[in-house]
Specification:
Layout: E1 2-5, E2 11-13, E3 24-25, E4 31-32, E5 45-48, E6 51-55, E7 60-71, E8 74-84, E9 89-100, E10 103-113, E11 118-122, E12 125-128, E13 132-135, E14 138-143, E15 146-155, E16 164-174, E17 178-188, E18 191-202, E19 210-217, E20 221-233, E21 236-245, E22 249-259, E23 265-275, E24 296-310, E25 313-322, H1 326-331, H2 333-337, E26 345-351, E27 355-362, E28 371-382, E29 385-386, E30 392-407, E31 412-428, E32 430-432, E33 436-449, E34 459-471, E35 474-482, E36 489-505, E37 527-544, E38 547-559, E39 562-563, E40 577-583, E41 590-598, E42 603-612, H3 624-632, E43 637-646, E44 650-662, E45 665-680, E46 686-704, E47 707-716, E48 720-729
Antiparallel strand pairs: 1-6, 2-5, 3-4, 5-7, 6-7, 7-8, 8-9, 9-10, 10-11, 10-12, 11-14, 12-13, 13-15, 14-15, 15-16, 16-17, 17-18, 19-20, 19-48, 20-21, 21-22, 22-23, 23-24, 24-25, 25-26, 26-27, 27-28, 28-30, 29-30, 30-31, 31-33, 32-33, 33-34, 34-36, 35-36, 36-37, 37-38, 37-39, 38-40, 40-41, ...
């Protein structure tokens, strides 16, 4: 037996037979014994302490006082420890700290196997990467990636007294995967606020787990909106919503994202609004529920499923059911503003090499919707099949449809028919002079209807059409490089692409006034139109995503048409000019402008100008405010704005500004001003609104360590004043703070943003 005091003695411990080796030198130069349990070991076990003893018979090393044990990425510090060289087990006691793989355990006693990397910690304090903290009666590392905590808690707050914690009798943590627990309580401070029979949270999920929004507005009075994120596994996760509104009572909802291994994935939402208290307007007057105090149970159910059956076959199913028309306006303001269509259909599309086959079934589910039902429609479509070795190409289409056009009840059905439609086109692709592309085409369309609008017997409508497409492309490159205004320009290429399309459609054998108008197939009439267009582009090369890429620095396009068959209201045949301008002066900026000019009235019919710090922003389909939140919040500052004007609808200005004052403070301002808007007054008469502020929102956001806090003040023409305080628990402290969740207006209610 060897014994040294007040000296750091190093023992080299390996994994095989016991062998002796020469002595080593201590730090003070004195000779101390050193033992090697495997002369071939590449990873020794190093034991330091005030006293270190080795028992050869028991194959154990004992250390006392300022003990440290090091093996690979494992380090154990404690007051005393025993290491068993044969079993590779360490028993450490007294202020034990164990670190490995960026994970940290602190406890009274640790039993740990350095080879299997499993063990137990008594009365632990735990840090598990990525920043999960915990404690309890006992912690066990069951394998490399699985931790178990008995009668303990986990949190993302590293403070001695965490701001919040999830407490349970049994907690399982799977690194880089999930946390699971049963019969848990969520504590804020020392106050229990919610019970879950089972809880699972993905460690890959960076969204806030819990969101609480108290506030007040004119429509709801005082309200509290809550969202509780749940995670069963990667294929089943979502949110549970529990809301309270002073003037509307309670509301409940669930959002579920699901997936299957073989049958696709989708999302399901259901929201229920139990309006039992003071009601400020009627949602369903046709049912006589227009008196204050009436009890109305309102709901919205949504489902969308997508299934990739095989590499070329895809199925999509969508379901939307609502209690009444006004539920969208009352609780889903974004869907209402976008005039979102609530479709109910099932579709299967198979895209082979030469043709595409599709099956569509569409049914009305809400009696107040105007819908064209397809019960069903089968379609086969070919795409430019080359005929032999010639330059001729064939395009064909055939469809069979059972159609029913429904208007809101009590009107209901206004037209129905069975329709067989065929469309056959032959084209010839040629190039003249080596630079001019010319593609003439001709075809015929034959459509069978089982009945007309009057319900008469079946008939066939025939249509002949012809035309040609002519286009070319010119470009010239310029060796011009510039960093003016920090704009990255590495050469300039100017591209000019003119094109002309001529289309002639003979008068159909049956006038469209006698045919029910179900879709574009039925609205065919006489046409004799030439459509010229001109595209100009300035291109350069920039580093985008780490790669040198060609980008459009600026793009301008103008198009119009000349209709030989139709006179306009002032006698001309020339159509409107459509103008479009787009620019990306920087990788982080996009500018888009569109205009329609009427040459006969010598005026613009519409004009829009939009800019934002997102080069990929789709201004037609996205919400400016949401995009600014989403894409600019990780920058110091951001902005966005737009101006839209239409002769028939009015004009408005929209602007958004965001500034990160400090790493913990952020301010955001949003404004939407109607310069002119045509609408309806309270009494139902037409009214023009001038310089009317449609909406303002001001937000102050604060990083509260484990929480994100927002104070929001919103003024809306439609919904009055709204005050909100938003608290969100961070998923992980090391994840950048996500301020982009847009809870304004709070009309989302129980349908808060999914995901």
């Amino acid at each position: 037996m060897l014994n040294n005091r007040n000296l750091a003695v190093v023992f080299v411990v390996a994994f095989a037979a016991l062998l002796a080796c020469p002595s080593a030198s201590a730090e003070d130069g004195s000779k101390v014994p050193s033992l090697d349990f495997n002369k071939d070991s590449k990873e020794p076990v190093i034991i330091n302490g005030d006293t270190v003893e080795y028992n050869e018979a028991g194959k154990t090393a004992s250390a006392n006082g300022n003990v440290s044990i090091i093996y690979q990425d494992l380090k154990v510090t404690c007051r005393k420890a025993i290491f068993h060289s044969d079993t590779k087990e360490v028993i450490a006691e007294g202020d034990v700290i164990l670190t490995q793989d960026k994970n940290y355990f602190k406890g009274e006693k640790v039993v740990y196997n350095i080879e299997t990397k499993t063990g137990t910690v008594i009365k632990p304090n735990v840090f598990i990467d990525p920043t999960f903290y915990g404690g309890g009666e006992k912690a066990e590392k069951l394998d490399k990636d699985h931790y178990y905590i008995k009668r303990g808690f986990v949190t993302t707050c590293e403070r001695e007294h965490p701001h919040y914690r999830v407490q349970s009798k049994q907690l399982n943590i799977y690194l880089d995967d999930r946390v699971t627990a049963s019969n848990i309580l969520l504590f804020v401070g020392n106050v229990p606020i919610f019970y879950f029979p089972y809880y699972s949270h993905s460690l890959k999920d960076k969204h806030p787990g819990v969101t609480v929004i108290p506030g007040k507005n004119d429509d709801w009075g005082y309200f509290v909106l809550t969202s509780w994120r749940y995670y069963i596994n990667d294929n089943l996760r979502g949110r549970i919503h529990i809301d309270y509104r002073e003037k509307r009572d309670f509301a409940y909802g669930i959002t579920t994202n699901y997936g299957t291994e073989d049958y696709g994935s989708g999302i399901f939402r259901f929201n229920y609004f139990d309006e039992k208290k003071e009601r400020i307007w009627s949602s369903r007057p046709e049912e006589g529920l227009d008196s204050p105090g009436s009890e109305v149970r309102r709901y919205r159910a949504q489902m969308r499923h997508k299934w990739q059956m095989d590499p070329i076959t895809q199925g999509v199913f969508e379901f939307n059911k609502m209690s009444d028309t006004n539920v969208i306006k009352d609780y889903y303001i974004k869907d209402y503003q976008r005039d979102m269509v609530n479709s109910n259909y099932a579709s299967v599309i198979r895209a082979d090499k030469y043709y595409t086959t599709s099956l569509l079934a569409q049914k009305r589910m809400n009696r107040f919707d105007s819908v064209v039902e397809y019960l069903p429609q089968v379609k086969i479509e070919t795409t430019s099949i080359k005929i032999g070795k010639s330059s001729f190409y064939y395009d064909g289409l055939a469809s069979v449809s059972n159609l029913n056009k429904l208007e809101p009840s009590p009107v209901n059905s206004v037209a129905s028919t069975n329709r067989l439609d065929t469309n056959n086109k032959l084209s010839y692709q040629s190039t003249l002079f080596g630079w001019l592309s010319v593609t003439p085409f001709a075809g015929t369309r034959q459509t069978f209807y089982s009945r007309d609008l009057e319900g008469d017997n079946n008939f066939v409508r025939g249509v002949f059409f012809t035309g040609t497409d002519v286009s070319t492309r010119f470009y010239k490159a310029y060796d011009y490089n510039s960093r003016m205004w920090n704009m990255e320009i590495n050469g300039i290429r100017h591209v000019i692409a003119p094109s002309v399309k001529y289309s002639y459609t003979h008068e159909p054998t049956v006038n469209r006034s006698k045919i029910g108008q179900f879709d574009e197939v039925d609205n065919i009439g006489f046409e004799n139109v030439i459509t010229p267009s001109l595209e100009n582009k300035l291109q350069t090369k920039r580093i985008v995503g780490g790669k040198m890429t060609t980008v459009d620095l600026a793009r301008f396009m103008i198009s119009t048409n000349y209709n030989f068959a139709t006179e306009t209201d002032k006698g001309g045949k020339l159509g409107n000019y459509n103008l479009s301008f787009e620019s990306k002066p920087y990788n982080w900026m996009r500018i888009l402008s569109n205009a329609v000019y009427n040459p006969h009235r010598a005026r613009f019919e519409s004009f829009s100008f939009n800019f934002a710090g997102n080069p990929e922003l789709d201004f037609d389909n996205q919400d400016l405010r949401q995009e600014v939140y989403t894409d600019l919040t990780r920058k110091r500052w951001g902005y966005g704005g737009g101006y839209r004007w239409d002769n028939d609808l009015g004009s408005l200005i929209e602007s958004q500004f965001m500034f990160n004052v400090t790493p913990k403070w952020k301010i955001t301002a949003y404004n939407r001003l109607d310069l002119k808007r045509f609408g309806t007054a309270v009494d139902g008469t037409p009214k023009k609104f001038i310089n009317s502020m449609a909406e303002q929102e001001y937000r102050v956001s604060r990083d509260l360590h484990c929480w994100i806090g927002d104070f929001v003040y919103n003024i809306s023409r439609d919904h009055g004043h709204t005050f909100m305080v938003i608290f969100r628990i961070k998923a992980f402290p090391d994840v950048p703070i996500e301020f982009e969740q847009n809870y304004n207006p709070p009309m989302f209610g129980s349908a808060m943003p999914p995901g």
